[in-house]
Design brief:
Blueprint: E1 5-10, E2 13-16, E3 19-22, H1 25-31, H2 35-50, H3 59-76, H4 80-85, H5 95-98, H6 101-135, H7 145-156, H8 161-164, E4 184-191, E5 199-207, H9 210-223, E6 227-230, E7 237-240, H10 261-269, H11 279-297, H12 302-316
Pfam families: DUF6076
InterPro entries: DUF6076
């Protein structure tokens, strides 16, 4: 829960605070809050809630509470999505320096409730969409917006949806909502990006709920052909903007940042992406077919054909 999130959806991009991102890019950042990172945030805040006083505390206790919420805030701001959206405390941090406990206590309690909402939304969204990606998106035969929409329909209306979608009954009060809480939605003309000279009719949204922002960014991305996938090697999520069924990401490798995760995965496993969806293989196949036809016509010798075939195979590897 944030006090204010304003953004524009412009075709395949989303504009937040004057910055343009691919649809799904910020959601990918949220999805990449791994279990260890989330547990540190969650258990820190859980301990914070248990120690939270029911009455107005002494100044020393109040100072410790503020330090702890600042520390939890810093754990969130490690991730790109919160660097872009900001966090509730960012705009009012200086306020607490000049105000007494009596003046600032009510605002501090409200601030803590907002962080509670953020943590609930991260868990509810990430767990639900992780299941959708690994059990629905991953098994699609085709990767098109129509197929993504059909998969999401099957996911949401599955008879076993209560097992896949985070809900208060089975998930200790956490919930993946089926309603978006938007303060406003308008259609406004907007430049595709600053200085482009091209314009679109953008959808302007205003919300105070993190989960609403994430679902709009992710689901609008699916309708634009953008899909978040899980790398089979490093287990991180990455954004795919085409219909190719890639298995590994192009992020810097965790083992050796000089190489991409995909390069390291190929070296270790010697596994290539499925040839049916690999553009490099398709190009290689067409080139071999052309020189084979030239050989059959007698334009080149068999020996020359074998030489070219070996060169093409070496370049493909």
């Amino acid at each position: 829960m944030f006090s204010d999130i304003c953004f524009y959806v412009k075709g395949k991009t989303i504009e937040v605070d004057g910055q343009d991102f691919l649809l799904g890019e910020l959601t990918e950042s949220c999805m990449n809050i791994n279990d260890d990172q989330f547990h540190e945030i969650y258990f820190s805040f859980d301990k914070f809630k248990k120690e939270f006083p029911t009455e107005l505390p002494e100044q020393e206790k109040y100072d410790k509470l503020k330090e702890e919420i600042f520390r939890i805030d810093s754990l969130l701001r490690v991730h790109k999505i919160f660097q872009v959206l900001g966090t509730p405390i960012e705009t009012i941090k200086s306020y607490f320096k000049d105000k007494s406990i009596l003046e600032s206590w009510d605002m501090f309690c409200q601030l803590c409730n907002e962080y509670n909402g953020i943590i609930i939304d991260i868990y509810s969204f990430n767990v639900t969409i992780n299941c959708f990606i690994t059990q629905w998106i991953r098994n699609l035969k085709k990767c098109t917006p129509d197929d993504y929409a059909a998969a999401y329909y099957d996911f949401v209306f599955s008879p076993l949806a209560y097992k896949y979608i985070v809900n208060p009954v089975y998930n200790d009060g956490f919930i993946y909502t089926n309603t978006e809480f938007l303060s406003s939605l308008n259609l406004v003309p907007r430049e595709t990006y600053e200085g482009s000279g091209k314009y679109v009719i953008a959808e302007y949204y205003h919300t105070s709920i993190l989960q609403s922002f994430l679902k709009i960014d992710y689901l609008k991305g699916l309708m634009a052909g953008h899909s978040i996938r899980k790398c089979e090697h490093c287990k991180r999520f990455y954004l795919s903007t085409n219909a190719y069924r890639t298995r590994f990401c192009d992020k810097p490798s965790l083992e050796d940042p000089k190489f991409t995760c995909k390069q390291i995965a190929y070296r270790k496993t010697h596994i290539k992406d499925s040839n049916d969806n690999n553009p490099k293989y398709q190009t290689y196949k067409k080139a071999v077919h052309r020189i084979m036809r030239s050989c059959q016509r007698g334009a080149i010798t068999v020996w020359r054909f074998l030489q070219w075939a070996l060169i093409l195979a070496y370049k493909r590897v």
